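Before the break, one more example. Copy the sequence into your notebook; we will annotate it together after we see the structure.
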Amino acid sequence: MTFDRLDDELARWADGGRVATLWWRDDDAVAMTPALAPLLELARAHEVPVALAVVPASLEGSLVAAVATAPQCTIVQHGYAHRNHASAGAKSCELGGDRPLGIVVAELGVGSERLRAAFGRRFEPVLVPPWNRIDPHVVAVLPAQGFVGVSTFGPRTCRDAAPGVVRCNAHADPIAWRDGRRFVGAERALDAVLEHLAQRRQGVADPDEPTGLLTHHLVFDIEAWQFVGELLARTRRHPAARWVGVAEAVNRSA
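Here is what the structure looks like once it is written out:
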């Protein structure tokens, strides 16, 4: 019965003559590992685009080679080193206000250059802050650094994070980070997807923000990947659902 609820929600979109857009972001990529293989296979099998959020400082050549043969993948920037610089007792944050802004900006620039050199046109200048946290002062300088998008977590309250920088957040994370970093189960995982879809349909959330699936391949188990596979399969064959790439999510293409 789990995915029947998804069919019901998409039927409501269809009844309104609308198509629900979705997008897929996977965090913490640095190398081609056995943990990444299921993601690449699902993206290929279902022909669904996926944005790999890559940590520039830790990038390995094996990931560059893997992406070269995986046309469904687009690269986005996952901070610089995924290193916590927050003060003691504060929530983890790399792009916060605990360091001089110039240092943070310089690191982001080095990271962008490294990703662009490694991946070329496969790199999309969208910033994914580690731990989904970023200081407003850092956001304000993103246009000058060439970024066109920023992605954190939760329904966006406004489309533009800064002039020319579009928010495209993730909304469904199926990992219980404070409870053993485990898969929450298909029912709860689907709840998050359905909640954002319903909020968009009802006008409670921005109807134009694609519903974002967030995965972390390094901690996913077989059941978590089975959930993703079924979600992709169900939505791919439903006329009221469409997966978009990150470029379209930030309005860079249609």
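Helices lie at 4-15, 37-46, 61-68, 101-119, 136-141, 186-202, 222-236, 246-249. The first strand starts at residue 20 and ends at 29. Try to locate both features in your own notes.
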